[in-house]
Design brief:
By secondary structure, the chain is mainly alpha-helical. The protein has a 3-stranded mixed beta sheet, covered by helices on one side.
């Protein structure tokens, strides 16, 4: 199987420690994180993805907001400048340990954080990165 993932979630998964918007969201994210940890392929999609799924029943899910779409654009730009094989909409990505390590190093230094500006999780993710990514669900290797 393939996990459908929007671009800015490539950054979110770097600091995921089992916290989320709701119990259903977290349970879903935990299952996706396990699949990513097992090396499952990722398909980069525009708009809501497999992580967003539990939020889509909300009256006005934030997954469709312009600010979230802008986060996706910025994440693609920053990761495109970082990675040897830039992620593209409709393209697939395999997060091998070396790639995760490279992405985490860039995240910790702020190189790929433009998409995080204004995100309600910014403080949590900044603290996780500053702590050397201790407790993250998806290990580097």
């Amino acid at each position: 199987m393939t996990i459908r993932l929007r671009p800015h979630h490539l950054l979110c998964l770097l600091t995921y420690v089992g916290k989320g918007y709701s119990a259903a969201f977290t349970a879903n994210y935990d299952a996706i994180a396990a699949r990513i940890g097992d090396g499952e392929d990722l398909l980069i999609v525009a708009g809501p993805d497999d992580i967003c799924a539990p939020l889509l029943a909300d009256a006005e899910p934030h997954c469709h907001r312009d600010s979230v779409i802008e986060r996706d654009r910025l994440a693609l730009r920053d990761l495109g400048e970082l990675l040897e094989t830039p992620p593209q909409l409709g393209g697939s990505v395999v997060l091998e340990p070396a790639v995760l390590k490279q992405m985490r190093e860039a995240f910790a230094t702020g190189r790929t954080r433009a998409a995080c500006v204004g995100c309600e999780w910014h403080g949590l993710c900044t603290g996780i990165a500053a702590g050397g990514f201790a407790g993250v669900v998806i290990p580097t290797g």
